[in-house]
Amino acid sequence: MSKAKPQVGIIMGSQSDWETMRHAAEVLAELQVPFETRVVSAHRTPKRLVEYATGAKGRGLSVIIAGAGGAAHLPGMAASMTTLPVLGVPVESRTLKGVDSLYSIVQMPGGVPVGTLAIGKAGAINAGLLAASILALGDNALAARLEAWRARQTEAVAELPVDPDR
Ligand code: RP5
Q1: Which pTM value belongs to this model?
Q2: Could you tell me which CATH number the domain at 8-150 has?
Q3: What residues does 65 pair with on adjacent strands?
Q4: N or C: fewer beta carbons within 10 Å in the chain?
Q5: How far is residue 59's CA from residue 17's CA, in Å, rounded to a whole number?
Q6: Structural contact between residues 38 and 52, judged by C-beta atoms closer than 8 angstroms
Q7: Where are the domains of the chain?
Q8: Is the Cβ atom of 76 under 6 angstroms away from ligand 1?
């Protein structure tokens, strides 16, 4: 990524979450939104989480994307320490297929919002797009790039289905 100051922070509970969270990073890179990535675990590195979440706004971040699996407390705990928008991505867990992650992230108590996305890759992609949409409210050039991204997606959808075996 370029040396521009990061506007979006992508955090994840474990290195194992990167396979999912890299899709958020790829979307932001395509849209030329500067971002940073960090492994920050609510359970294994709680002090790192406090430092990250309390310092995020002051360091110039505008949105946090937080992905975690299982007992996925990272997005909610991050949201408890900042008023930046926090987008939560439930990572698909091995045992419960991410339903545990989803339930852990989505049922926040009133007063501490986390915008929860779909489980897995789709959620990570959409977290990247949603972060870009939020930033685009104050950035016309980014808004135009986002419109173009969506137009390319529409153009890429064939009208007729093709037989993959042929
Ligand atoms: C969570 O536990 C992480 O977000 C990850 O999804 C899950 C498993 O972590 P590892 O055991 O793979 O490090 O904290």
Answers
A1: 0.96
A2: 3.40.50.1970
A3: 10, 87
A4: C
A5: 24
A6: yes
A7: 8-150
A8: no
